[in-house]
Amino acid sequence: MLKSKSFRENLQKILFQILIFLLPTQVAYHFWPDWAFVGGIRVDYLSPAIYLTDIVLLALFFLWALERLVGKERKIPKFSKRQVVLFAIFIFSLFNVYYAQRPQVSLVKWIKVYELAFLTIYIVDKKKTITKKLIFTPLSLALIYSSVIAIGQFFLQRTIGGPLYLLGERSFTASTPGIAKAYYLGRELMRPYSIFPHPNVLAGFVATSGFFLLKTKGSVFLKVIVGISSFAVLVLAASLGVWLALFIVAVFMVTYFLSPKFFKRIALYIFFLVVLLGLLLPIASAQFSKVNLRENISKRAELNEAAGKMLSQAPLTGIGLNNFPVLLPTVRVDTGITWFLQPVHNIFLLIFVETGIFGLLIFIYFLFLSLKKSFQVVGSKGLYVFVFLLIIITGSFDHYWITLQQTQLLLAVFAGLAYR
After folding, report:
1. Quick check: helix, strand or coil at residue 42?
2. CA pair distance 255, 278, nearest whole angstrom
3. 375: Cα within 13 Å, side-chain hemisphere
4. Model pTM greater than 0.85?
5. Could you give the CA distance from residue 407 to residue 202 in angstroms, rounded to a whole number?
6. Is 345 helix (H, G, I), strand (E, B) or coil?
7. Which of 183, 189, 176, 178 lies closest to 150 in space, CA to CA?
8. How far, CA to CA in Å, does 162 sit from each of 166, 169, 229?
9. pLDDT (mean) for 242-246
10. How many other CB atoms are there within 10 angstroms of residue 73's CB atom?
11. Which has the least CB within 10 A, 82, 232, 308, 402?
12. Please, are residues 337 and 70 in contact by the beta-carbon 8 Å criterion?
């Protein structure tokens, strides 16, 4: 049956919809080798893990490869202009792994990068079958069930438990040390996590996927549910970075409808300004350290300072992909070490530190090209432009777009849709 083209295509459609439906989940089997520990503490970012979504992607890769071998379409997709760049990135990744403080950590992360690259290329290659219409329903359902879980957690002020553990929900309550909280009508309450590692990740996922769904053709009923649930979650998650990004994008939307050409110029200027501000964070944070600030802001400032020190050690090659938590104790000592062992909260600064100037230029080019391609998508009415602006702006306040499974996959999906 696998030799039947129609059967393979239908199977791929089903698997792809399953992948989209499972995007919010963090079901995984984690491995804990010695190099996943720092100072005797287990660090999730360093742990190799096999996610359920990885298995679905592996099945898609198998069918895609089989299609090239036994199907009528035996040729590799036309990426000739990118082949040299991809080969250069591969060679660079070998150097980055070799010079990393912990090569094993860097190697695992580069494998993830190749996996995400496959997903992007796959969506580009299958543009006739992997459409927005195919994505709409499973992504709507994914957003709805993850939002319902978040709302339930907020009113219970704890995780729901039971079978939701199978989706990746972790067990905690409002009194758990280190749990994220915010003030609601004068009361300090637990912010909902849903099945994400942090409320900020939940908010980023809901904001971008919700925006995409509301501007995509599909069931009006599902759109109403998505709109209500998304707004409720964004209020409860209380992510200031996401709300600021949504405000900026709303302003841009007005500009877009008034003058698309002016909007395009402004959007590109904003992109490079965001990149520049991110790279200047270590210098600015050195000044913040002299001022009494809220704990979460001061911690981020300390991470920025640490990034500057690491960057001075290896500005060309970088310290190795995903090695930021590894080197953190060597440049900064802090009593809240459990919270502290995580990447710097800016995607551009993090890429610069871990991959050096070459890796930073590749990453900037990837996002710039994604933004540029977004303007060229026929009939999108700026949809992908606004989505990528949301990603770029929220990426200035947090690292989850390039460090966590759910949001990495979502970014790859949006890139694949925008590139074709």
Report:
1. strand
2. 25
3. 15
4. yes
5. 9
6. coil
7. 189
8. 8, 9, 22
9. 95
10. 10
11. 82
12. no
